[in-house]
Amino acid sequence: MKKVLDLPTNRVNSIRRGNDQGRCNGAARQRRTDIDADGIALVTWDVPGRSMNVIDLKTIEELSTIVEQVAGDAAIKGAVITSGKETFCAGADLTMLEVFSREFSDTVKAQGEEMAVKRLFEESRKLSQLYRRLETSGKPWVAAINGTALGGGFELCLACHHRVAADNAKTRVGLPEIKVGLFPGAGGTQRLARMMQPGDALQFLLKGDQIRLAQAKGMKLIDAVVP
For the chain, which ranges sit under pLDDT 50? Predict the structure, then answer.
């Protein structure tokens, strides 16, 4: 049995292999990663203290660590990411925008507008860079969608190489950012245009609909719906 690899952030459970019950220190962990005998890592996303998973700066940091471990560990042949909650992900925590705004103002005062713009640009594209890293990591990733996946959560699914959804009449998927005056910022605009006809992708982005699984499968946004 290989040694458990401890993740550096205290909100993620350690990678576990076989029956090893090792954990990293800290009580507030967002993800647990188990590796089976075939070398498939199961990443279970479960943000503590919240009814739904949301994407915040800590989530980006933690998932980045996991993606790098999956990419760099020859014993891991692929990864499946799913949710430990009834839904997959509600999207980004919009309070991140407030954080970015405050940091921009502070940087303008301390270092000038040019540096503030540069820093905002770098921070705002971290999620997009993370999903691209996952997509090009050299290991196959599968999104096991066990409930509604919206916004940045559905963009994560789109970045995976295969998408399987549990059959649930309540489940919706989509990119509703346009309804709050935003465009998807983590690569969804590019991946949709490769999966669909450009006109259909544009309609999907501009309407921001949250669609049922049968429709998503018909549009080839989901590969399979299973019981």
Answer: 1-28
- Burial category of 182 from C-beta neighbours within 10 Å (exposed 0-12, middle 13-18, buried 19 and up): middle
Question: Which residues share a beta bridge with 210?
Answer: 174
Check residue 31 and give its pLDDT.
61
Instruction: Identify whether 54 is part of a domain.
Output: yes
For position 74, what pLDDT does the model report? 93
Does a structural domain hold residue 47? Answer: yes
What residues have CB less than 8 Å from 190, skipping those under 6 apart? none
State the Cα–Cα distance between residues 198 and 205, nearest whole angstrom.
Answer: 10
124 located within any domain: no
d(Cα 144, Cα 53) in Å, to the nearest integer? 14
Residue indicated by tokens 């989509």: 174
CATH classification of the domain holding 160: 3.90.226.10
- Residue 89 per-residue DSSP state: B
Q: Which domain holds residue 137?
A: 12-93+131-226
> How many domains does the chain divide into?
1
- At 44 the pLDDT is 94
